[in-house]
Amino acid sequence: MAMSEIKQFRLPDVGEGLTEAEIVSWKVKPGDTVKVNDIVVEIETAKSLVELPSPYAGTVSELLVEEGTTIAVHTPIISVDVSGGAAVASAAEVDTADPPAGETVPAPADSAVTDMVPEVTAPPADEAVEPGLIGGPAPGGRTSVLVGYGPRSTEAKRRPRKSAAAGAPAAQPAAGPATPSAPVAGVTVLAKPPVRKLARDLGVDLTTVTASGVGGTITREDVQAAVSGTSAPPDALTDAAAAAVPAVIPAPTRLGGETRVPVKGVRKMTAQAMVSSAFSAPHVTEWVTVDVSATMELVERLRAHRDFRDLRVSPLLVVMKALCLAVRRTPELNATWDEAAGEIVLKHYVNLGIAAATPRGLVVPNVKGADAMSMPELARALADLVETARAGRTQPADMSGGTITITNVGVFGVDSGTPIINPGESAILCFGAIRQQPWVVDGAVVPRWVTTLAVSFDHRIVDGAQGSRFLADVAAILEDPATALLWA
Fold first, then answer.
1. With contact defined as beta carbons under 8 Å apart, do 9 and 151 qualify?
2. Which residues have CB under 8 Å from 166's CB, separation 6+?
3. Which residues, other chains included, contact 177 with Cβ-Cβ below 8 Å and sequence gap of 6+?
4. Among 305, 303, 328, 333, which Cα is nearest to 317's?
5. Active site residues
6. Burial (0-12, 13-18, 19+ Cβ within 10 Å), 393
7. Are 144 and 134 in contact (CB under 8 A)?
């Protein structure tokens, strides 16, 4: 009988010390044929949505984790049958080396399983891969893949694994939207993986639930009705319709007169970061109200300038530039408190974070090297940052390494606030709504464009005088942009 070689793809660390992720949606099903770098699954980390490509070519034999499940890094998520020379390594590169001490190479059988965690670090110096060769061959007998490198034939460590059911037939392609469970007392339950997870979380036995979905499929509403002791309403959202709802937003669980929303993904990370910051860094917040009429005039002139053709120019762009100039004069606002070393680390560069509200929650991507950028370059960087954040595709690397942050609450019509400092930073600037208000100019009350700025800073690093000087400098540039020439 021909040998079937099954390889398991384990959840990789896609960056920045990832410890867990949620399986959002599978892009393949058992029986599908995949090539190296074909996208097989979309996951949600604590920071972003990430599509994972297959490091193997072959036939999908089993999806090992249900959608909606949060798992730890290195957990097997999918099995691929790479028999017949479909693996990353060519048929001529079959491992013939002696196994390492203590390991046994399994004899040919119907199923031999090989586990792999694709490397996510850079390749060794002697195996550098040229840009654009993702998916192509790499020195050492490996293939470059989007999550690292495919296995060398001599590096794959094989060990016998017991299948979930010895002698059981291979997994068959899914025939429909629902996944039948094993018969229980003669009853076959039809329910999609997210519904099964909900039932497990609520302690509901699916064999006791009355199905209202198409073809006898149990829906989310059926499970919730079983908890509340009522029948599902006739117009209940079907599972097929529920599948059309973006999976990036945690599905609330409705019980009686309350709604429970799972704390995970971005919300979980935000909560942990804010609690850590609020109770480790002594916050101080200061405010200043400033006439920004000159900034509004500057914005209008920049919009008409040829260097800003096809670029969006807003007052936030001027605030970003003003902040970069102000931290040159007060570098303590662009610093980190190193508790272990007992040092204050002053940063000589500005990775400017922009707090962005997205459907997935609050994310704070940052513009790397913002202080070295011209105004048009800042405008392009801001546009890219916002577009990526709104699409929910901000990557972990884009949200790491920030040195100071701006939160623009003015877009919500809010005057100001007392923002919490991003962990690892020493200050955050809050930019409020710009409104026309009565203002005294040369003894006369006239309508002017006015806004309120607030800065929260870590009082371990920043003294009151330093925080006040920084805030006054930002306000001075917004009140008279020509002031920037003094410090540029």
1. no
2. none
3. 192, 217, 239, 240, 243
4. 303
5. 459
6. middle
7. yes
- Is 159:102 a contact under the CB 8 Å cutoff? no
The 10s digit of each residue's pLDDT in 131-189 is 333 334 444 444 444 444 344 444 444 444 444 444 444 434 343 344 444 334 444 56
Query: Residue 266 and residue 108: Cα distance in Å, rounded?
Result: 46
Whole-prediction pTM? 0.54
Give me the helices (H) in 286-404, please: 293-303, 315-329, 375-390
Structural domains in the chain, sorted by start? 5-149 (2.40.50.100), 179-260 (4.10.320.10), 267-487 (3.30.559.10)
Closest CA to 317 of 181, 207, 408: 408
Give the residue carrying structure tokens 């080396």: 97
Cβ-proximal residues to 139 (8 Å cutoff; 6+ apart), any chain:
126, 127
Task: Classify the C-alpha dihedral 293-298-303-304 as positive or negative.
Answer: positive
Question: Looking up tokens 């072959």, which residue turns up?
Answer: 58
Place of tokens 């891969």: 129
Cβ-count burial 197-207 (b if 16+ within 10 Å, e if not): bbbeeeebebe
